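USER:
Before I trust my own judgement here, I would like a peer's view. Write it directly below this note and I will take it from there.

ASSISTANT:
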Amino acid sequence: MAIRKLLCVLVTCALLAPQVKGATAPLGGFIPFAGIGLTDEFKNASTDLSGTFFLADPETSIVGNPLSGGGSPYYDIALLDTGAATHILTSQADGPNGFDIHGNNFDGDNIQQIGGATGLINLEINNPLAIYAGGLKNFTANGATLTKNPSANLRGQSSVATLSAPTEWKLPNILGLPMAAQHSITIKNSEPQIFELGGRTVRTPEVEFDDLGIGGGSITRRAPLKIRPGSSFIAGPLYIQNLDILGGNFNFHENPLSPTIIENGGLFIDVDMARGTKSLQDKELLFDTGADLTVVSEITAARLGFDPILDTPDFVLEVEGSGGVSAGIPGFYLDELNIDTVGGTFTMQRVPIAVLDVTNPNDPGNIIDGILGMHLFTGRDLVIDANPSIGQGGTGPSLYISDPVVENHTWTSTVSQAIFQTPTNWTANGVPNQMWVAELRNTAIPTQFVNLTGNSIVNQLVVAGGQNSTLRLQLNGTQKLTTFGETRIENGGIVSLNDSGTRLDAQFVNIEGGTLRGNGSVFVGTGPITGVVRNLSGRIEPGNGIGALEIVGDYSNLVNGTLAIQLGGTTPGQFDLLEVDRFAFLSGTLEVSLVNFTPAVGNMFTFLTTGEGVSGAFDNLVLPAGFQWGVDYLSDSVVLKVLGLGTSGDFDSDGDVDGHDFLLWQRNPSVGDLADWQSNYGVGAVLSSATVVPEPTGIVSILVAAALLVIKRRPL
């Protein structure tokens, strides 16, 4: 069985020249999905007299017999990823309940090793077949089943060798660069698709495929794309045929030596970046629809005045890969990022970026300057037209960028109790919908409560108060609030999930000075890609009083974030619980308070549980006085323990009275009496080193694997 190595990056009408300047980029962008199907259409050396059977043929409609393991054609969703060198099927899609690659005799004998930002993984190379794709408005979801609407037409490629991933691959199916080499692609945030598939919310812009060379239609703003190398795009996608002549196999299409790729191919775009007094002009970044955040190499960051090794980052990231998460990726904010365009400018300010060296797919063995992420294009339509320029004149390969297609609406109600869906409470005098960027902000009265009357969907949501005011958005019963993109909770904003059946469902949640509390569930992500609840600088308070809050996704408590836990007894249900479906990344502050309860030495409280692991530890502990506390960081949970009785003046309850206690008193004199600290300073210094440090086995090891660049912020 041959093993080869493939380097690829796996990382979501204007008539006048528009101007885009001064807009800020969010902490994450959209992730585009399409529906895919396979058929048995391919060429071989016997039927293809031209001798180019290994070249992919573009198809404008479905040709051949559908592949499936049952009687009906099988369809699935796939991430549209122009940064991926080829098409990849998950083990589920490959298997007997999917396309049944083995049962239909399309599995090959050779192995392809692929590499991304976080490692390598081996995948199987399939025999050539045909792959077709279309936007998800052409499909109907029922449970875990995706069905193509009868009238829908799909476009694709025949004579294509795909890859099949092993079971440890945690990413979705991938529709890679070869598709963009033979079809133009329109990503329509003006037509957001939101639906349930397999118990997960899929949220994606509509995706359309058309002929190369169609241009941007009514979109005038155009950024020239650089297709690298141009000769490979002109030649088209191809696989390396089987050359096992000595072994007696003259069926050259069987057991190909590589999947179908654009040889050393990639789409690049010129970008200008500035940070302080440093700036870079015309840097070529890889245009990657599979990356939701922009990435720059370490040397590019250094040239912008940020040393990723010596300097303190603005934030630290997690990079998600097929086998797990790679931690400790530094990030910082650019003051400005400009994309070179004609037909209107495109400039973003305060742009978050990650620092990570990624192999150049156009020049393997070297590092690219960076990757352009989809967060820059939130709320906009894009057209990707990689039509090669071969001397015929006209427009070359281009990315077309529309003006914002979403609607910005602001809350106007000034009464203490108001309804979210009441039209007169908004500047638009309408009911919030999936095209709304809804800014729910109270600056008029000290306290305002906003209630839902039923389920609601918006595009993006901001919940905030004012300098001396709060706004509390409440969900009750079984109400569900869905956002297509970000939910952001700012200073003075509170999102309260009052009952266990309530659900906040977003691509990601950022808590920036506000509070998330309650007994319900927070679902984050899109389809098979998991999202994150990031507590950047606010509070998470499980329960209304004592209770349990569930996060279906990842949880990241950053350096300025606080997790507040109440203890009212020793049995489950008598103390707060934060349940995390996947990983918990910990830093910041743990704040614990007692509710009509006096703990005893030996009591233990498992207040945080995870499905896949705990990484990091809280930097600051604010614990009830009068006790010595210990915090154990286990592989899948965090446990608070009462180790003994405390000492007066030990305000942080870590078993000693030292300078940390004085600093805590300075910040919050209500924690205790300064005279107690003065009397007992230095007591317990030897014991403290063994009480509140993580156990060595408690810090989870995260595997490094081939990466899809879906970036998750984590604590410093």
Notes: Confidence is low (pLDDT under 50) at residues 1-21, 685-716. The two ends are 44 Å apart (CA to CA). The helical segments are 91-94, 177-182, 230-235, 298-303, 659-667, 674-680, 685-688.
